[in-house]
Amino acid sequence: MTEFRNFIAGSWSEGASQSPNINPSDTRDVIGTAARASRAEAEAAVEAAHAAAPLWAASTPQQRFDVLDRIGTEILERREELGRLLSREEGKILAEGSGEVMRAGQIFKFFAGEALRQTGDVLASVRPGVTVDVRREPVGVVALITPWNFPIAIPAWKIAPALAYGNTVVLKPAELVPGSAHALAEIISRSGLPAGAFNLVGGKGSDIGPVLTSHPKVKAVSFTGSVPTGRGIARACAENLKKVQLEMGGKNPMVVLDDADLDIAVAASLNGAFFSTGQRCTASSRLIVTEGIHDRFVARMTEALKKLVVGDALDPATQIGPVVDERQLAQDLDYVDIARGEGGKVAFGGERLNREKPGFYMAPALITETTPGMRINREEVFGPVASVIRVKDYDEALAVANDCEFGLSSGICTTSLKYASDFKAKAQAGMVMVNLPTAGVDYHVPFGGTKGSSFGPREQGRYAAEFYTTVKTAYTQP
Ligand code: UN1
């Protein structure tokens, strides 16, 4: 049995207890056992990161480049194997699994370069003869709490900038996907990073999360996950005056206008709503469609959904893998019922599917005849469920798109430059997509949202420096 262990101060450990890592495509397949850290182990990880902090903060840009570049190289070389492990434990299909691993490798390569490209300012003071320089310094120990839906890319896009800017790390990955985090930790352990600069602790968030968010030696917490957990983390960080960065939910709109290219609109909506089994905070869960194209759009979507192959994530013929676990599947099915109860019509799917192997399979659901006030259009489902809202024109589409407590990614399909430009300006979202799915983002540009979706500085690209550094202003009189 493979053991996915904790990594603390440069040593591997079994944890206080273990939990099984189950394949959602075949629940008989136990991939391994995952270490659950005790609170004392989580504390030891923070202490190790704290002890290593001065050494890593003093590392040269070349040392940081070398470490991150080595990590990126090994991830890229092993992308098929790591992608398979990721798909086996999370349930996204093989192409998505290896694609995600590739993204993780590219992120490490990008931040390897950023370690060399760090900048500062040198200015004249307002006082004669005095100069001022403004430089970025590491924050110190950062705690990274990551979700199950991107088991390697999200840890990568937090760890890589943390290390590139000279911080040390304690990673707490989601319990459902310990294998990918363990593989990443092994790669990091061989990279030349000093012992203690990177630590991995597995287990329940409710158990060890509070250790990380309250420990005085943790200076910053970056979290991706649910809104209630995010709020709790923000409260704890406020109490202890830590920097905090939160990426939470979405209820992302995809607007389809009468003048849209229907092929593009259907492809972008299918991808955005249902790929990765809809388990992305960037998923297009509200399809807002103007009346002139509505019926043709729904007919084409339904036709396309009928052809999608739902099955074992490790079967190359599969297009939609299983839902991650029983609890999430129950929630997805529940929301289909809620939508039906509110007057929505299930145009396709929405039921549990039985396959040869016992797993959490669900037919992707398209719900039509919905209105903006319904719960199905206000609450995040986090599964393969999308609803269609019929609107009169662009103005109504924009208003409905923005009538939401979230603001992560907003899409529009149109051939009109006028509407596309207006939407880019007025969409209340951190990311806007024109004729592209709301999900599936680049790795070298900022990622994040507005309103209830995100809190704190942006992730990714060079904007990541904002969170992972602190600014020092130095005055010199020679
Ligand atoms: C993507 O759409 O490519 O948890 C990334 C999530 C996001 C990542 C989405 N933080 O779904």
From TrEMBL:
Keyword vocabulary terms for this entry: Oxidation, Oxidoreductase
Region: Disordered, residue numbers: 1-27
Domain (Aldehyde dehydrogenase) ranges: 14-473
Superkingdom as given in the UniProt entry: Bacteria
Entry keyword Oxidoreductase: yes
Amino acid composition bias (Polar residues), ranges on this chain: 14-25
Active site per database record: E247
One GO MF term: oxidoreductase activity, acting on the aldehyde or oxo group of donors, NAD or NADP as acceptor
Family: Belongs to the aldehyde dehydrogenase family.
Protein's recorded name: Aldehyde dehydrogenase family protein
Organism, scientific name: Pannonibacter tanglangensis
